[in-house]
Amino acid sequence: MAENIKEYIKANESRFFEELFSLLRIPSVSSDPSRKEEMLRCAERLAELLREAGADLAEICPTDGAPVVFAQKMVSESLPTVLVYGHYDVQPAEPFELWKSDPFEPEIRDGAIYARGANDDKGQLFMHVKAFEYLCRNGLLKHNVKFILEGEEEIGSPSLAKWAADNREKLSASVILVSDTTMISDKVPSINCGMRGLSYVEVKVTGPNKDLHSGHYGGAVANPINVLCDMISSLIDEDGRVTVKGFYDDVVELSAQDRAQLARAPFDLDEYKEFLDIKEVKGEKGYSTLERTGIRPCLDVCGIWGGYTGVGSKTVLPSEAHAKISMRLVPNQDSGRITELFMEHFKSIAPDYVKVEVKPSHGGNGFLIPISSKAYQAASRAMTEVYGIEPVPSRGGGSIPVLADLQQILGIDPLLMGFGLERDTIHSPNESYLLSQFFAGIESIVLFYKYY
Hints:
The chain has 452 residues and is α+β, with helices and mostly antiparallel strands.
């Protein structure tokens, strides 16, 4: 079959690019309310492409936010059903001046597609559409296939969980197949068998009721920025562990065998440090760098501000200080509970000379699938055939919270069969997607259906 799909890709290559580029040209930026028309236009184009690929049904489903594209082809009720998840919204492209080409006018150069969404996630979800098309047009489809393509993943999927719960029967399937992640490298393929969850909060520390002259009041009144820095520094101890009471209560320690499996992933610490231009790494004591980003939770300040930050100097003691704090969680940790624990802890460590507010932002739970599962084994066999080497099981340090929601709502596991690479610089200027990975992804997905 692999040779046939290779020939199909080669024969239809120019059409594939034309169709994908029609999606990439649409600036479907979900965080920008002025892009509502473009969001709908992108959803409609996807539905059109799914119908052309062979779907019996492809519809635009309204939600409380951006619409969901739902499509399906039912072959037989007795066959297993694969539910393909993806998202058609993209990150903002700013700063535009750092792009070498127009982010919404795709361009092929140096063996890659350059555009916003080339990888995340339009390029990767498009592989599923073309694999589905090949199977339909060649009479090889032996599964029921459903697509759920949302338009709010980049803003935390605020509408999808409710829509999925309201349409539980419609979405019934045996596995959720996802391509929205990276692999270790194109020479060392990997399958993501779990991702971390997220709890994201914003904190505000208030001192005096207005900004004060630092000469008149400095040394006599608490500076909220100084206090906030002290409070933040106390959140992680000298061993790199989060000090929030109860934070680790539900963290499952991996067995030596599981840690050995994950350690199969090739990793060069010196190259890692050189790539980041740092002298040394830092993290929780007793764990490797890959373990720290895959199987352990963490807490990081993502932004901090207060006082005067303009040009020149202003001798002011600020009234307020703010910070945004991200906590990456591992499976079994509940995002809502962690948020509550953090709120209680942060308020409890506030000294009397300031007031503290904690505002939850967004979050979601992590998830894990066993490598012994039928879906994982099918994906592993497919990628081994395409890449010539057995893929390594890996854990993602990032989060796709809605997948944990879908897992709970639908009672089925997600399988992350991603083909992106770190070089693709998703979310940044000059996002790209290697053509070799794009083609290998289509081949691997076709073979997944063969072995699942």
